[in-house]
Amino acid sequence: MAKKSYLEENKETAEAFTRAIYKAQKWVEAKQPEEIAKTIQSHFPDTELDVLSTAIKRYKQQNSYAADPLLNEEEWNKLQEIMKESDELPKFIPYKQLVDSSIAKKVTEHK
């Protein structure tokens, strides 16, 4: 997420960042939980490799990882529901009012 003004002033940076995120998302989708766990283990020094691997496997089975940087209206509404339930969202904001997927669409179309 970024402010509209930031995206307008830093379009190339936003596109590069989104491409990097998408590349990482495709990598996570293509790799086995064990390989992902080995790659990220240094960021979780107090967590055993098998625990990381099990958590990653579960997340993959639940489709908890986004496969691409696009945020559709259903996902937006689900996010707001979660925020509302935890009293972090005072009111719902319409998808079309706040979400601009143009950069994500551009990045995912140029695979």
Short account of what is shown:
It contains 7 helices and no strands. The chain has 111 residues and is mainly alpha-helical. Helix 2 packs across helix 7 and helix 3 crosses helix 4.
How is this structure best described in words?
- With 111 residues, the protein is mostly helical.
- The protein contains seven helices and no strands.
- Among the domains are: 31-65, no CATH class; 72-100.
- Helix 2 crosses helix 7 and helix 3 crosses helix 4 (49-61).
- The relative contact order is 0.13.
- The protein starts with a helix and ends with a helix.
- The longest helix is centred in the first third of the chain and has 20 residues, at 11-30.
Record keyword descriptors for this entry.
mainly alpha
Q: pLDDT under 50 segments (min length 5)?
A: none
The largest sheet, given as strand count, sense and whether it forms a barrel, is: none
Number of continuous helical runs: 7
Strand content: under 5%
Shape: globular
Work out the number of β strands.
0
> What's the oligomerization state?
single chain
The residue-averaged pLDDT reads 95
Distance N to C terminus: 21 Å
Class per helix and strand makeup: mainly alpha
Radius of gyration: 17 Å
Helix content range: 55-70%
* Sequence of secondary-structure elements: HHHHHHH
